[in-house]
Structure formats: C-alpha cells, structure tokens
Design a protein that fits this description.
With about 140 residues, the protein is mainly alpha-helical. The chain is built from seven helices and two strands, in the order ααααααββα.
Amino acid sequence: MNYFWHDVERRAVRHKIPFTGRAPYPADPELLALRVGVIAAEDGWCADYSRTTFHKWFIGRRAPGVADHVERVLASLGKPPAPIIARAISADGERLLKEATDGARKFGIFGAPTFAIGSEIYWGDDRLADALSFASRR
C-alpha cells in the first residue's frame, strides 16, 4: 500500500491535482456510493456525482460510502438525498448494480479506470493518451 499511495501522489503531481495523503479506507463497504453512482448514470448526472464524490474523498478526506457523505454530495448537486438513497438500497438499486457489474464483465472491464472506445478498452490512467489517440483516429 505504501507504493500505491506514493504512486497516487506522483500521478496527482503530474496532473496538477492537490494530494492530501492517503484517502480514508474502506471507502464504500456497503456499496452505497456505487449504487448511487449507477442511479446517477442512469439519470444522466454521473459525471457531476463522480467528480464531487472523488474530490470530497481525496481532498475533503470523506469516505464516499458513509451515509452522511452521500447525503451531502447529493444535496450539493441539488438532488434529493432521501429518495435516491432509498432507491439505492432497495431491490431496484441491487438490480441496477448487478446489471452494471455484469455488463462491465461482459465488456471485459477488470479494473479502474478503464477507457472504452467502441469495443476497444484501455486500462489504467497511464493508458489515457493511448485511448485518446485511438479515439481521435476513428
């Protein structure tokens, strides 16, 4: 883990992103933040949700899956926390998560970040330039 966090720090410097040290872990033990993310993706606000969640995790030092953190992120985005969290922990939320996971496996995704251009996948932030290059040639 020491190497991992040192590597995260190096990447943060490279991308000019503030690094405040190791982020709280475990991040999402009940998969609440992930379930909300699947709902956000379905409803079209996943990019804002993801940026806010990760910023508050790595910079604000708040683990994504902590209930009050999820509520604060949703409220900051103008989303009603109670019904979204209720849906996320419901059977519908479980179904959406399973479908998304199965779809990722079927596509061949095995880690994050993965960049997909058509059926071509690139894994790891060090492959972003390759993915962008491939996408620009299409």
